């Protein structure tokens, strides 16, 4: 029975999987999921997978039919490939859930051109990734095979999906652009959005430099149209450039809270917005300096400043002004046009919109830049709010050429699987292998369609190694999400990830005798980055976490001192190394919980297009772990913020932190609700955003709301940037 003729009535695995959702004798029928997995492999995978006499025959077929890149295979002796396959088979990999196998074969496994048969299994896809990223280095290829077959490392979806293919898409997940206040730049950004969306990536674009609606152009008052029409143009661009109909193009636009168009910007996402201004598919984000929180606390009026006037007075685009430091000077400058609104009115407007739509994302810009160790300023983020890197503006002439080449951002992402990573025999080698794989993606991304992105990538070699499965690890080891032991573990894990990723990047710089651009101006070069590790010895605080890390070498004070010396001498290859991206479908393949978040349901229900509902049990869900799996919608979000804040101390970029709220909040969850309505209000979101800010959270991604009629709002998952 070929894939295109598959009749659901003739298979049993969907029914078996659905029995997961039907308790028996008051318990979850976990065994039914295992039965569904076995039935899926027997009824679907085995009969519909192409068979070959030998591994050599298989690769001859792949080459003949242009499935695999010949240039990749030419780097290896075939005896080595056979050796790798022997190692991979000896690992005895098995999917742990029906959803894991179903997602892999539906979304990742290579199929014949007519989509009727599978051409590869999980081992084959791992082999292609290992051979591709190792670039002919047999030792690295074996290390990569080892990390991926044991699911310690997971490349981002576009990288994992396309590695090794002759007819492949791009490896990069997403991009960050900016526009300056002129028509040439706007036109160039729209063209760039078209090109990058066509490649399959989500695009983040900062519009804060654009003059506001009603501003003057060449002496004519009220001539400027502001940011909203540009948003409409960008939304149309993403809709048009939709990866050949396979997936909707995706973009997010960011605006400063001190931009005069801020209220119109937010109004574009309101449910009752006029169609002339409404944006349906474009995501919204705000860049928020410290000064905004200060004005909220004072219950003060706030001034919004004309970007055109600010750039004229300061000689640089609005994005690059330190608004917190310059706020009073901007207010006092009579040459800068300004308008006034009440800070708390804007704060409430943000919360209202987050209740309605989940937007806008929040980038706490001064928190980001205080922690940024690289020379320059971070001004924006990507479609999932975790990429936070310095940018410089470009100057475009009338021929749409670069008179001054700026730098923009491409995102090269991958993730550790925390549960499996804690089982590694060598934490240092595992992380080194991952950083090398990610650096290969950066080195081999051909992005000349947007020269500023290519320039930024070539200058910084930035990557984003993240993590998934934190909630699963907590439950497996009987820790409650957000408790003392959980916080202690989070602190240690991400300190380790930071240390060993620095060690790996330093080793690559030493081997290549090359550091990222302007390394000598960074806090790594002057040594101040390491103060937080040298002024206190980061070690486990609880007995349980000491035992969990027993097999691993935890960096000591002297290790950090030695690393500091090596980095000051030899540099770092990657300007950025760590970022916690959302994990989408690939977390199911990894039998993992998503990112660092708590679970939503012990048995998750997914609607799979034409198939119907598929159920996914939380990893390691057993009678003794059930109490440790609490729904995110029933948790105090301050616990989630605390976990993310703990990890953030060690992560040089950001994290896609989502807040989960109920329309009707559980009784007693938040002390400020006492004697007030139990309905979620704007005040609740205001308090939580302020709490996140004071905990040095760099970004807040979606607000997801579980309504009283059991629907989720604000759940438009970003496929482009998720791992």
TrEMBL record:
InterPro entries the UniProt entry points to: NrdE_NrdA_C (IPR013346), RNR_1b_NrdE (IPR026459), RNR_lg_C (IPR000788), RNR_lsu_N (IPR013509), RNR_N (IPR013554), RNR_R1-su_N (IPR008926), Rrm1 (IPR039718)
GO cellular component: ribonucleoside-diphosphate reductase complex
EC numbers: 1.17.4.1
Keyword ATP-binding: yes
GO molecular function: ATP binding; ribonucleoside-diphosphate reductase activity, thioredoxin disulfide as acceptor
Reaction equations catalysed: a 2'-deoxyribonucleoside 5'-diphosphate + [thioredoxin]-disulfide + H2O = a ribonucleoside 5'-diphosphate + [thioredoxin]-dithiol
Top-tier EC class: oxidoreductase
Keyword Disulfide bond: yes
Keywords linked to the UniProt accession: Allosteric enzyme, ATP-binding, Deoxyribonucleotide synthesis, Disulfide bond, Nucleotide-binding, Oxidoreductase
Ribonucleotide reductase large subunit domain ranges (all copies): 560-582
One GO-annotated biological process of the protein: deoxyribonucleotide biosynthetic process
Function summary: Provides the precursors necessary for DNA synthesis. Catalyzes the biosynthesis of deoxyribonucleotides from the corresponding ribonucleotides.
Family classification: Belongs to the ribonucleoside diphosphate reductase large chain family.
The protein's name: Ribonucleoside-diphosphate reductase
